[in-house]
Design a protein that fits this description.
Layout (H helix, E strand, L loop, with lengths): L3 E5 L5 H8 L4 E2 L12 E3 L3 H4 L1 H11 L4 E7 L19 E6 L8 H11 L4 E3 L8 H8 L10 H4 L5 E3 L7 H7 L8 H6 L1
Parallel strand pairs: 1-3, 1-4, 2-7, 4-5, 5-6
Bound molecules: guanosine-5'-triphosphate and magnesium ion.
């Protein structure tokens, strides 16, 4: 597989895409630092949002075979200036994520990606699996054997947690036994 670096605004779905491409269940995990030991280099969104940190992205791009700029289909604006492929020394592709979102405006996000010079552009959903196969095939190198086929890769994922999923505190408390609670008064007395 080609080594791909993921860049894009915080919450556009970089880490989730990485989990989906590996056939994992989706579980929210805030990226705190660049993870570059993996075949997919995952970066924190803040690096794309701050000029000083963005320089690190340029350096990490040298560790990759492909640079992937990402944007969520429901983003209200694009972070990227036009024609930035000129400063990139690797093939630069575009990934439009979260196309399953009810607020998605996929054609607009594709157009914003096109303006950057990214080519090709992959509209995908890490939740439904839509579009993942084309991306997978793009990353394929001679001799690679895929662990799963198109049907499996493009099937809906189990989402264990999202960033905004509220804690189900009521249910957890209701499930507890009386004896699960520590009686602080007794402790103090004891
Ligand atoms: N509906 C939908 N939600 C998604 C999709 N991809 C990601 N999300 C949700 O968007 C939120 C942010 O996803 P992350 O993958 O953590 O985003 P990130 O780009 O890695 O963010 P940082 O680590 O902060 O840079 C999570 O709640 C995900 O579950 C998708 O394809 N569809
Ligand atoms: Mg992340």
């Amino acid at each position: 597989m080609k080594k791909m670096i993921l860049m894009g605004r915080s919450e556009c779905g970089k880490t989730t895409l990485k989990q989906a491409l590996k056939g994992k269940k989706i579980q929210y995990d805030k990226t705190q630092a660049v993870d570059y030991f993996d075949i997919i280099i995952d970066t924190p969104g803040e690096y794309a949002e701050n000029l000083d940190l963005a320089r690190a992205l340029a350096l990490y791009s040298y560790e990759s075979d492909v640079v992937a700029l990402m944007i969520a289909a429901n983003e209200a604006y694009s972070l990227y200036p036009p024609n930035i492929n000129g400063v990139c020394t690797r093939p630069m592709i575009g990934i439009v994520t979260q196309i399953d979102s009810p607020q998605a405006n996929t054609p607009r996000a594709i157009e914003w990606m096109r303006l950057t010079g990214a080519d090709p552009i992959f509209p995908i959903s890490s939740y439904t699996g839509e579009g993942l196969w084309d991306l997978f095939c793009y990353l394929r190198e001679e001799g690679d054997h895929f662990p799963f086929g198109k049907e499996e890769l493009e099937s809906p994922r189990v989402v264990l947690s999202t960033k905004y999923q509220p804690f189900d505190i009521g249910t957890q408390v209701a499930d507890m036994e009386e004896t699960d609670f520590i009686d602080i008064n007794n402790r103090i007395k004891g």
